[in-house]
Amino acid sequence: xxxxxxxxxxxxxxxxxxxxxxxxxxxxxxxxxxxxxxxxxxxxxxxxxxxxxxxxxxxxxxxxxxxxxxxxxxxxxxxxxxxxxxxxxxxxxxxxxxxxxxxxxxxxxxxxxxxxxxxxxxxxxxxxxxxxxxxxxxxxxxxxxxxxxxxxxxxxxxxxxxxxxxxxxxxxxxxxxxxxxxxxxxxxxxxxxxxx
Length: 196
What we know:
By secondary structure, this protein is an alpha/beta fold. It is built from six helices and seven strands. The chain is globular and about 40 Å long. The model is unreliable at 181-196 (pLDDT under 50).
């Protein structure tokens, strides 16, 4: 079976941007789901790959990005998701985790065919990353309780687009397994809103 990787998008954030106040409550709601995914992926020895904005600091590396995020206004949102010594790290400059990054090459080297996308922002970086994963023929899983948004209506629309246009599996973090023998988690069947 294809290997699964957990992709943690933009969770190392100093929250010093224009939309931060609108984003922070949703990050707080998504944090338990992200932490649960990190714990299970690490326990299964699945690749955990942080893909994070460099915030325009072109001379920065992942240690500096983490340090900046930890010294920001919401350290409590960063500490629980700090990369461990086995985590991989890719720096991005635009919305998609694939755009002008080595992520596709890295996933190929790791034998990954299924990606679980968590983090922020649902209607921006998660959406564009899901599209880029889909057109590269990855199986895409989005745990609706482990993604954060700025605009709830746009996030709901983005999740619908991921499901309908990108064949993404929308589910909850507790339904996702990282064992190679499991092809996918069961989809939501409750008919409720897709963003939890």
